[in-house]
Please model this.
Amino acid sequence: MRGCWRCLRITARGVFCAACLLLTSVVLLVFPAQAEPPPGDALPILMYHSVLKDPARAGAYVVSPAVVEEDFCWLRDRGCAALTISEAAGLAARGEPLPENAVAITFDDGFLNVSTYVLPLLERYDLKATVAVIGSGSERFSDTPDPNPAYASLDWGEIARLAASGRVEIAVHSYDLHRLSPRKGAGRRAGESEAEYRAAFRADTEACLDLLREHCGIVPTTYAYPYGEIDESSFEVLSQLGFTAALTCRERVNHVLPTGGALLVLDRFNRPSGVSTANFMKKLGIYP
Model:
């Protein structure tokens, strides 16, 4: 099952409300299209990947620092309150409302260029972001340094520096599931049993958690699914491992309801090149 949820709760016993199917330990809330806005506080989430100056590299998953700065300026000038994902999950768990004009900013894949170009912009515009790292990439570039912002991953030192800035939450983007084979992302392989899948997903997630705890002193509570590939069996694993939120690649504005501490699953809008800030923000419902 791919990411298509507004708000998800893991409970002792649950119901898949959208299709009225009984599922173990999951309540899935899906709001149909309607004239009136759905219940819950709106939380649009921006999803960036790589940030590079070279215009030849611009594309669906690469934007320039100038684009990021224009987006950040837009958010600041409109009084948007940028939350980290863990902050949003904490408010939902306590049943507290999100701030007015709440947004969240995320960066997937853990590229070094986030440290190079994005952290100074977060500081300049008084914003926060959640950065999801791939454990195997950070391990490789920590063991064999090659600090080229065009392709390098954040090493342990840079991850710790980002976390210490007070501007960045570090999230898990898997240890080594950011691949198209032998499985696509964190999805289940053909013929793989639920027990086999859970064991593989848990082992990969724990490997990333262990590295971040050992090298950076960080215990993440947000998980970003590689390629947005999701199997419902992973939700309970994440909850057991202490995660409070998970991120999909489905492009919808979230409407966050109180979770009582259950896993919050959130949708995001990918930020490509070639789209003006005004048009991109319009998709998210952030108007002038």
